[in-house]
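FW: tagging you since you asked about this chain on Friday. Here's the raw sequence from the shared folder, copied in full. Didn't touch anything.
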Amino acid sequence: MHKLKAQEKADSVESLLGPIKPVKDQATGLELLLLPDGFSYTSFGWSKDMMDDGVKTPGAHDGMGVVATNGSEITLIRNHEVGGARAAFGSDSMTFDSMAGGGCTTLVFDVDAGELKKSHSAISGTVRNCAGGVTPWGTWLTCEETVDGLEKEDEKTGYQKEHGWIFEVPADGSATAKPIKEMGRFVHEAVAVDPDTGYVYETEDRGFAGLYRFIPKVKGKLSDGGKLQMLKVPGNQNLTGSSNGKRVFENIEWVSIDEPTLAHSPGTTNSIGCFAQGVKNGGTAFSRLEGCWYGGGLIYFSATSGGEAGKGQIWSYDPKENVLNLIYESPGVEVLNYPDNIAISPNGGIAICEDGSTDEITVNGKKVLNYPRLHGLTPDGELFTLSRNNCVLKGERNGFSGDYRKREWAGATFSPDGKWLFVNMQSPGISLAITGPWDKVGF
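HL: got it, structure written out here
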């Protein structure tokens, strides 16, 4: 069980592993990241890299998960949060909408060799594949962070189909690109699956957002359908801001979403068709729910702009005890600035990707620009900074040139043994494999 601790200074956030400093990428020699002593990394799967199927790697790297292992080879499926009408990158058999540029790619990384072995397209023709989640049966659920369809505000979008769905992607080969519509049509972010029940928990990335769960008719067969529900905290319909010092909420209820494919409230284009149904039935609102992960019997999720300071919270839900816990709340931008994707390590640590604005803060008595960070939260509730974006390019790789230090982290996921943390730099689109002395912080 994580313990809630308040940390008010950025100095203390970095102290658990010592100061972070520029470290060279083992693949390119470029100093893409700041890391503590003892940590190393290698980049792979850059945007515009040619994959084994003859397709150039799409950009906008986002959510990612480990779906299979074979000896030293780890299979990852990675989202690409590409929006706007454009030609799909994959073959017709894996394409949902021929005029949508998002989707997923599959990567096989060899941890012994420290390099990418192969990669290929997995699903295409989707829109803004933000995050998703791994399943206990070895697939990836990829989520569209939009409800755009053929028209938006009476104007043609250029898309050929309605969007806002969840799709299932196999560990090998490619997906059939069939949406699982009963899982809901809303501004999806991430999902986490409870292996005991097969229930799928879903986050929604809006200022006022719900936490949903999908109860499948048949465990492990999501495409067979099921029912969608929204979390209700009795007596607390609004947990977007301060919880007034309360951390534990018991006797959680779940209310039905009777029309899960309803994108908007009737007669509007407000994108809250599912959310409005839940609130009408007493469902609870959070502030921008993004990351979601299962670990140790709990469903963890982040409220990116939740809390009294509006800079983010980390929550956990215990399905067996039916209890919701606030396990961490940011006191300000210096400490934690908009937590987005999260991942749970095998030992119970939480990797937290930041997606916040770049502000000036004070660290060790010096004024510095607060470029997005990759944090860790220990089981004892101590937050520490693992890395900071340091990516400045001058055309060294695939023609990318510019200062990318303000770009967000995404897609954190651990290898099954906990020795490697895989993560994405969304722009220019780079995947990274980080390793080091995790035991120093109980990871």
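FW: The first strand starts at residue 21 and ends at 23.
HL: agreed, and Helices lie at 10-15, 273-280.
FW: great, closing this out.
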